[in-house]
Specification:
binds (S)-3-Hydroxyhexanoyl-CoA, single chain, 30 helices, alpha/beta, Rossmann fold, 6-stranded mixed sheet, 2-enoyl-CoA Hydratase, Chain A, domain 1
Length: about 700
């Protein structure tokens, strides 16, 4: 028997346990091991039934995504089919009971559905999450699940990838029973009962209930498709998952499974699968910090103090409260404090209205909040987070104050989005405790947390911030201390280029539409209006004296500021906004001003294609990303991808800007940037790393693994 799958008989029942840590993925050897165990079961007179169970913390979390990624990238040509194994389990002469704890996902659920019965502990979760990595269930999941729970419910689960709890799974009909936490013994008892039954043991593939698309189902599928056009914009897999599930209404199991297999193969070869699988592994790679000593431990964070109750401070406070961490929220005066508290309450009330939280949950969260006007009150906090206006002197003053009150060992974090952490740390007597925790707005919603290490930040403070990010349900990415860190440093050339394209003849709507259709959550000009053009102007005032004189600057910056075209907050910016509306409308008169200002600046007007818009904005992003990488401000190119997916709305199915560059081809990107340097000017100088990768025929992915 393979070491990955063990077989022993306990109390007259064969226990087949899978032991492939950490998540019992169906890597090479696991399907074979289960198959051998089923063969053994046939001949084993000491066993009247079998229990299939996962060792460690979970049942099977699905096919091995590393292997899928090899096939998706073309590095491996064939993927072993699971169908023969599923048939072998289902046709076993003795009942097979699947015992689930942790998660049964993807191929794991498909194996579970080929067993005659399924039981699980209450905390188990089940699902077909394949669409989240750009594929559909490929081992009969789209054909078996509808046979258990009907077309409408199966389509929803396969198209959204939503995981369900064990109680929901019982209700839907995926599970036969929830059992106590002594899973193995409970499952053995269940299996013995089944073995004693005279009834034939159910085979999912032979079930045919609820396989008709009646009017109600039709409506449900229609609604599902509509929802996906918004939530899964630009993606193929969800629609293909629905298509595969719907086949059960008119194709017998065998034919349906073959059709599913073809759809699965098509998805597996898509750039969407490559992008999403890259994002899956990149998200998990961010926690690996090469120079962090192995023995460093994170300080547990049991209480926090937030300085500043503005938009960011309020959102950060909610993130902590949502994670069950008590917060002292400090402001300078009662009015500002009241305003901040009112916004927090308003946001929570909206969450209750949307059904995200119950009244009780909100009450509990608010009971963890202590408003304050005194630094005295931050004394007990394990972490103090400064979230005030983006001004270096102000932040330094505040850190000097914090230093006087915070307890020894407390983490002192700044939510600065651009400023120098070392300068901020220099205002304290303990720079080793100071770190950047850059949240993204709205901070209670956005998943990214840029964690900025200063030159003196201690390994323990870094490890603690990384652990804290997980607790706050954020993706924490460690970055270096350069102006704008990773995200905003790259965003600047990206949005500049968007503005240059306007100045050369594109319209506001054209630029945004091209990038929205590429898959970004919003176009760059709409983002500037959301963030506030006054904020951009202020940052520009701080840095303009440091910029090289030959660096092209957008011509509209001062105009936007002085005309109060600050964006959504003043009802006009790049777009105009109707009262209470967030959707920007084209503003013809303003477009004329752009044309005239551009002409005044001597900029020639011409027709701009969508292709040029995409190249110039995206390549500007990639070029800066390459520079950040070679300067060591990001550990991996894939960390940059995660920052852009979770912080800036870059489409996950394109894998992030650096993965996108690999997909386009580094050589092509480099060549075009060289041309742009000639046509546009020195700010397009290619990053040396791009040249180096081009010359060695390498990629960002390969650079990460050096
Ligand atoms: C599929 O099944 C297709 C089929 O229809 C048919 C095919 C023929 N493979 O997330 P964590 C690794 S498609 C390989 O930090 P958690 C992960 O990279 C698959 N590796 O833990 C990490 O490695 P490392 C459908 C995997 O407790 C480690 O395990 N299934 C896989 O927060 C821990 O992961 C899915 O899409 C995998 N399938 O969450 C499920 N899964 O330590 C994807 C995990 O080296 N997985 N790893 O960085 C998940 O959603 C979460 O990992 C899970 C655990 C909820 C299971």
């Amino acid at each position: 028997m393979s070491e990955l799958v063990a077989y022993h008989v306990q109390d007259g029942v064969a226990v087949i346990s899978i032991n492939n840590p950490p998540v019992n993925a169906l890597g090479p050897g696991v399907p074979e091991g289960i198959s051998n165990a089923i063969t053994k079961l046939h001949a084993d007179h000491s066993a009247q039934a079998a229990v299939l169970i996962g060792s460690g913390k979970t049942f099977i979390a699905g096919a091995d995504i590393k292997q899928l990624a090899l096939v998706a990238s073309g590095a491996q040509t064939k993927l072993q089919s699971l169908s023969p194994l599923l048939r072998a389990i289902e046709d076993a002469s003795k009942p097979v009971v699947c015992a689930i704890h942790g998660t049964a996902l993807g191929g794991g659920l498909e194996i579970a559905m080929s067993c005659h019965y399924r039981v699980a502990v209450k905390k188990a979760r089940l699902g077909q999450p394949e669409v989240k990595i750009g594929i559909i269930p490929g081992a009969e999941g789209t054909q078996r699940l509808p046979r258990l729970i009907g077309i409408a419910a199966a389509a929803e689960l396969c198209a959204t990838g939503r995981m369900i709890s064990a109680p929901e799974a019982v209700k839907l009909g995926v599970l036969d029973a929830i059992v106590g936490d002594d899973l193995l013994n409970e499952a053995i008892r269940f299996a013995k009962n089944c073995a004693g039954s005279k009834e034939p043991h159910p085979k999912t593939r032979e079930l045919s209930k609820k396989l008709i698309i009646d009017e109600r189902t039709q409506e449900g599928l229609q609604q599902l498709r509509q929802g996906l056009t918004k939530k899964a914009r630009g993606m193929q897999a969800p629609a293909r998952a629905i298509e595969a599930v719907a086949l059960t209404s008119h194709l017998p199991f065998e034919e349906g499974s073959q059709a599913e297999s073809q759809l699965f193969q098509a998805c597996l070869k898509s750039s969407e699968a490559k992008g999403l699988m890259h994002a899956f592994f990149s998200e998990r790679a961010v926690s690996k910090i090469p120079d962090l000593p192995k023995d460093v431990t994170a300080t547990p964070i049991e209480s926090a103090a937030i300085i500043g109750a503005g938009t960011m401070g309020g959102g950060i406070t909610m993130s902590y409260l949502n994670a069950g961490i008590p917060v002292v929220l400090k402001e300078v005066d009662q009015e500002a404090l009241n305003r901040g508290l009112a916004t927090i309450r308003k946001n929570y009330a909206a969450s209750v209205k949307r059904g995200k939280f119950t009244e009780e949950q909100v009450e509990h969260r608010l009971s963890l909040l202590t408003p304050s006007l005194n630094y005295e009150d931050i004394k007990e906090a394990d972490i103090v987070v400064e979230a005030v206006f983006e001004n270096l002197e102000l932040k330094k003053n505040i850190f000097a104050e914090i230093d006087g009150f915070a307890k020894e060992g407390a983490i002192l974090a700044s939510n600065t989005s651009t400023l120098d952490i070392d300068q901020i740390a220099s205002a304290t007597r303990r720079p080793e405790s100071v770190i950047g925790n850059h949240f993204f707005s709205p901070a209670n919603i956005m998943k990214l947390l840029e964690i900025v290490r200063g030159s003196k930040t201690s390994p323990q403070v870094i490890a603690s911030s990384m652990a804290l990010a997980k607790r706050l349900r954020k993706v924490g990415v460690l970055v270096g201390n350069c102006f704008g860190f990773v995200g905003n440093r790259m965003f600047n050339p990206y949005t500049n280029e968007a503005q240059f394209l306007l100045e050369e003849g594109a319209s506001v709507a054209q630029v945004d539409k091209a990038l929205y259709e590429f898959g970004w959550a919003m176009g760059p000009l709409a983002v500037l209006d959301l963030a506030g053009n006054d904020v951009g102007w202020r940052i520009h005032q701080e840095v303009k004296h440091t910029l090289p004189s030959d660096r092209r600057q957008p011509v509209m910056t001062d105009y936007l500021y002085h005309e109060k075209r600050w964006g959504q907050k003043t009802g006009k910016g790049w777009y105009r906004y109707e009262a209470g509306q967030r959707l920007g409308l084209s503003d013809e008169s303003f477009e004329k001003v752009i044309r005239s200002e551009a002409r005044k600046a001597g900029i020639e007007q011409r027709t701009i294609t969508d292709e040029e818009i995409l190249e110039r904005t995206l390549y500007a992003l990639i070029n800066e990303g390459a520079r950040i990488l070679e300067e060591g401000f990001s550990i991996r190119s894939s960390d940059i991808d995660i920052i852009y997916i979770y912080g800036y709305g870059f489409p996950a199915y394109r894998g992030g800007p650096m993965h996108y560059a690999d997909q386009v081809g580094i050589k092509k990107v480099y060549k075009r940037i060289c041309e742009l340097e000639q046509q546009q000017g020195p700010w397009w100088k290619p990053a040396p790393l791009l040249r180096q990768l081009t010359e060695s025929g390498s990629t960002f992915a390969a650079f990460d693994h050096q």
